[in-house]
């Protein structure tokens, strides 16, 4: 199983000129190793682009994505990592979703397919990252 970060999915959904080829290739390779996983945060980040939950569900079914809830242990880990980020001078408030994603990957011991290497390496060093 591989947890797939929102940015990789958006590359495919939007046809991002710079990243779509890399993202599609990585999704295909990860899919060969096992299921592709998303969580509630990733669902919500993608859902803002659609009119209904059914549309999002249909998209994710086409992309062969499996939903996995974020366990409480991961929620706690995300809060503590975000706290360290803020104490270290992090000022961006919109990054908390990344901490939920990284913590779930850490707790579930899932590799994470993402283009955001630095934050995940810093706050979730045990997570195997699949990055450019």
TrEMBL record:
Its cofactor is Mg(2+). The keyword Acyltransferase does not apply. Keywords: DNA-binding, Hydrolase, Magnesium, Metal-binding, Nuclease, Toxin-antitoxin system. Residues 3-122 form the PIN domain. GO terms for molecular function: DNA binding; hydrolase activity; metal ion binding; nuclease activity. The keyword Lyase does not apply. Coiled coil: none annotated. Pfam families: PIN. Belongs to the PINc/VapC protein family. This is DNA-binding protein. It comes from Devosia elaeis.
């Amino acid at each position: 199983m591989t947890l797939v970060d929102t940015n990789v999915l958006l590359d495919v959904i939007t046809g991002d000129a710079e990243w779509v080829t890399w993202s599609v290739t990585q999704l295909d390779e990860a899919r060969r190793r096992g299921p592709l996983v998303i969580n509630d945060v990733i669902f919500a980040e993608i859902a803002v682009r659609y009119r209904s939950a059914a549309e999002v569900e249909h998209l994710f079914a086409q992309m062969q994505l499996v939903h996995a809830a974020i366990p409480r242990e991961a929620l706690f880990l995300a809060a503590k990592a975000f706290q360290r980020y803020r104490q270290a001078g992090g000022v961006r408030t919109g990054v908390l979703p990344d901490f939920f994603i990284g913590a779930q990957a850490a707790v579930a011991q899932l590799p994470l397919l993402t283009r955001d290497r630095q934050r995940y390496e810093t706050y979730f060093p045990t997570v195997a990252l699949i990055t450019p």
